[in-house]
Amino acid sequence: MTPSTTTPATDLFAQVLRQDRRADPYPCYAQLRRDPVVRMDDGTWLVSGYREIRQLLHDPRSSADRRDPQNKAPQAARSLLMQDPPLHDQLRRVVTEEFVPRVMGMRDHLGDLVSGLLDAHISDRPGRLDVVADLAYPLPVTVICELLGVPREDEALFGSIARRLTRGLDPVDTQTEEELRELDQARNELIQYLEGLITERRAEPGSDLLSGLMFHQDPDDVMGPIQLRVTLGLLLIAGHETTVNLIANGTLALLRNPDALARLRADPDLATPLVEEVLRYDPPVQMSGRSALADIDLGGTTIPEGSRIRLLLAAGNRDATRFEDPDRFVPDRRDNAHLGFGGGIHYCIGATLARAEAQIALTALARRLRSPRLVADPPPYRENAILRGPEKLLVAFDGLAPDGR
Amino acid sequence: MTGAGAAGLRTGRVVVVGASLAGLRAAEALRDEGFTGDLTLIGEEPHAPYDRPPLSKAVLTGRLACDHIELPRIRDIGARWLLGTPATGLDVPGRRVELADGRQLAYDRLVIATGTRARRWPVEAGGGLAGVHVLRAREDAERLRGALAAGPRRVLVVGGGFTGGEVASACRELGLPVTVTQRSAAPLAGALGGVIGRAAADWYREAGVDLRLNTTVEALEGDSAGRLRRAVLSDGTAMPVEVAVIATGAVANTEWLAGSGLAADHRGVVSRGDCRAVADCGSTAEDIYVAGDVARWPHLLFPGQLLRLDHWDNALAQARTAAHNLTRDPGERRDHRPLPAFWSQQFGRYLKSVGVPAVADQVAVTQGALDQRRFVAAYGLKGRLVGVVAVDSPRVLDGYAALIEARAPFPPRLGATDGPDRLDPVDADFPGRDAAGVPQQDIHPPSAPAPAQTAHR
What we know:
A: about 400 residues; B: about 450 residues; FAD/NAD(P)-binding domain; FAD-oxidoreductase/Apoptosis (chain B); FAD/NAD-bd_sf (chain B); FAD/NAD-binding_dom (chain B); flavoprotein (chain B); FAD (chain B)
C-alpha cells in the first residue's frame, strides 16, 4: 500500500471538508451513502444513511462524548451537547425549564425585529441587500443576547469570538497551527467575557435567562460555576452560528426556486412546511458526532466499541430510501421527519425558536422584496464545514416595500 | 369478483364495518390505493370517527371537550356513511352484512374493524347501578367527566391496568380520593409484569391513591333509588363509594359474526399476516380483511401466539396493510408486521413501550433505576430482546426498537452511561403463567388505551 492510497470514504469525506466543495457537498454525500456505514482510514466511522443515523441518535449505545482528541476540556467542563445521561439529562432539564418559557409567545416580537431590520433598506428603486449581514445574522444574535441578558453593546465583541470559535468545531486536521492558536485565544476571551458577565449578574440579577440559570432551584445541583459558563457559551454560540445559516440557506433555496418564492408570498402558511424542507434540504448543522459504548451492528457491519462516529445529518436528509425525490426542494413536502435538528436526547433545544425566526424572516423577505435575485450563485461560503452557510448572500431587488403586516 | 385483474381489484363494492380509527383509515387508504368503487362505512356509534386516547386523560380532567376530538381526515373518501347502525350479522357465502335496522348490505369485499368494548360489570353484582361506569366511547367519558366534576367523596377504580391507572391519575389531578383494586400483586402487571408493576405501585401511592393489591370487588351495592353507595371488597372491607369505574379489560365486538363461519370470539377475529380473515375450519376467507383492535394475528417477531393489540399505531398500520392487500393481486400483498408501540400518561409520568413486553420471561433495567423517576427496562424471551418500556425517557426507544427488529440477544449489551454496571435480568413476574413461565392463554397486552406519540401531534 502506498501512502497515497486511501479508501473512497476517506477520500470523499476529505472532499466534503474542502472549501471548494462548500457550496455543494451533496454529490459527495450521495457517493458516501452507497456505503451508509463505513470506516475511514483514521478509524472514524461515517454514517450517511437516514435510518442508520436515526438509530444512532436514539441508541443507548451511542455516547455524545466524542472521545475527541481535540477536546481537552475535562469531563465536567463540557457542555450538555457532549454529555451523556444521567448528567446530560439533569443539565438539559435545567436549561429546558429556563429557556422554553422565555421563548413562548415571542412571535410578535420576532416580527418586530424582522420589520426593523428590513425597514432600514426600504426602497422603491433597485437596490441590494446582504441577507446574511442585514437579516440572517443580526436577528438570532439580537434574540439570544436579549434572552440571555447580554448587553447590546457587547454584541460585536461577542460575535467575533463566536465566529472564531465556530471554526474550531471542524476536524482538527483541516486547521492550520495558526488557526488552532487563534482558537485557544478565542476560547480564553470567551471565558473572560462570560465570567465578567456572570459576576455582574450575580451581583444584580434580572429576569433574563442567565439569571434564571444561575438561580435555578435545582435539586440535582448540576449548574455549578463552570457548568454555568459552559452552558452560557453553548447557548450564545448556538444562537449566533446556526439560525443565521437556516435563514440564509432558506433564502438561497427560495431564490433558486421562484415557484416556491411566489407560493410563500401568496400563502404565509407555507412557511411552516417550507422551513422544515430547508432543514432537510440544506441543514445549517451538517453533521454530528458520537462514539460507540458497545459493539453496534448497523447497516450490515459492526461498529466496534470505542469507535468515534460521524453522523452526516445532511447526507441522511437526502436518502432516497426515506425521502421521495430527495434532491428536489419541495416546500410543502409531507412526512418530512428530517434530521436537521438532530434527534434523540440531544434534539435541538432551540428548535422552536429557530423555526419561528426562520419562518418569520423568510415570509418577510418573500413579501417585501420585489423581483429579488441572487447576485452571485453560488454565493461565497464560510470556511466551516459543520455549521455551514454563506459568508455573504447578496440579493438584488427592484424594490423593498414597507411592512404591510 | 376475484381474479378480475388489477382493474377489478380497484372497483366493485367494499363495505367497512366499524367507523373508528381503523375503519376510517382503511377507507382513506383504499382511495389512496386507487380504489374507485362503492365504499360504505358502517358505524355502531352515531358520531363521526373520533380519537379515543384523550378520553382517559384530558377529557376526564376537563382540559379537552369531546367536540374537539374528532379524527382529522387525511383525504376525501367519497363514501356512504351508515352511522348509528350496528351490524348484526354476516352472510359470508351470500356476501351480505345484516344491519340492526333490518337492512342488508351487499359487498364484494369486506373490512372488519369493529374494535373492542370495555368489559362490563355483571348486573347481578351491581353493574346496573347509577354511578357504575366504563370508559370506551365518548358518551362514557362525558358521563364519567360529569360524575367526577360533581365531586364524589370517593371513586373506586376496578382494575389497575393502563386505563385504570389513567383514570386514577385523572381523579388525583382533580383532587378526588380514589381507591384502585387490582387482582394481581402489582398494577400494570398484565402488560409489564410484576417487577415494573411494583415500581408503578410506588407512583400510585405517592400520588395518594389507596391501592389495594391482590384484591377484587365482590359486589357493588346501591340504595333504593338504584344509585351506587357501597363496594364490598375481597379483603372484607366495605367502603362507601358514589362512582366506580370498571377497567378490567376489553372484549372484542364479534357477536355479529356468530354463525358466519369466521374464527371469531370474545378475543377477536383470527386473521392471517396479510390481514385476511380465517374461517372456523382454518381456511382463509377470501375477500374479508380484518384491522385494528379486533384482529388477532400471527407476528413473525413473536411466534407461537396470536397478537391482539389495542394500540393506536397498530390500528393505523393494519388498516393501511389491509387496504393495500385488498386492492392487490396475491403476489403484491404484504404482511402486517409492525413493531408494536404504545404510550400512557399517569401520575405525571410518561410511559412508552415498544415490542411486546407481555410475552417476555425476563426483565432487566438497562438505564436509570426503578426507584428513580426515569428508567428503561428491557424484556427478554428465551434470550432474545422482545420489548422495552421507557419511563420519562422516550427518546431512546427507536434505538431499542431497531434491536428488537434485529432479534438482538437479551440481556442486550449496551454500555449505556446511565445503566447499571452489570445488567441483572430477573423473572419478569407476569401473573397467570405456569411454573415454566408459559402463558395460560393467548397473550395480548391488556387494554392499553394509549396511542403512539403521533396521536397528539
